Amino acid sequence: MKPATWQCNIKVIEEQSNYVWVRGTSGRYRFDAKVYRTGSDYGIRKGRVSKLTVWIDADRSNRQSCPHWIAIYDRGWDIRPQKKYRRFVEYIIRLLDALPPEDLEPPRKEDPC
Q: In which domain, by residue range, is 63 found?
């Protein structure tokens, strides 16, 4: 995957007082991350991302196909990205670390009254 094609769609899937869980996509790539509102001792390089899972979606035409795990970080690297995926994983980390706080708010439900 070339840097010019790295466009990510990110949405908040769960919100807590000091962090959010986000889910993102970029082509066949998927990722989930726990992102703190400020840096964390548990974060990647003391940043805001304390948990990150990156994978390539399974081939939906083949029911036997499983996702291909690219990287898993859970307060430490469980699966480090291979060299061919490192730049993409670094891009995701930088993108999530730089997200403005207002982008980490889930959509508000309309008040019917």
A: 7-100
Residues paired with residue 79 on neighbouring β-strands, in sequence order: 72
For residue 32, tell me if it sits in a domain: yes
pLDDT exceeds 90 at position 66: no
**In sequence order, what are the residues at sequence separation of 6 or more whose Cβ sits closer than 8 angstroms to the Cβ of residue 33?**
21, 22, 24, 49, 51, 52, 53, 92, 96
pLDDT tens, position by position, 70-111: 999 998 999 999 999 999 999 999 999 998 766 666 556 565
Residues ≥6 apart with Cβ < 8 Å to 80: 71
Structurally, how many domains does the chain consist of? 1
- Is residue 12 in a domain? yes
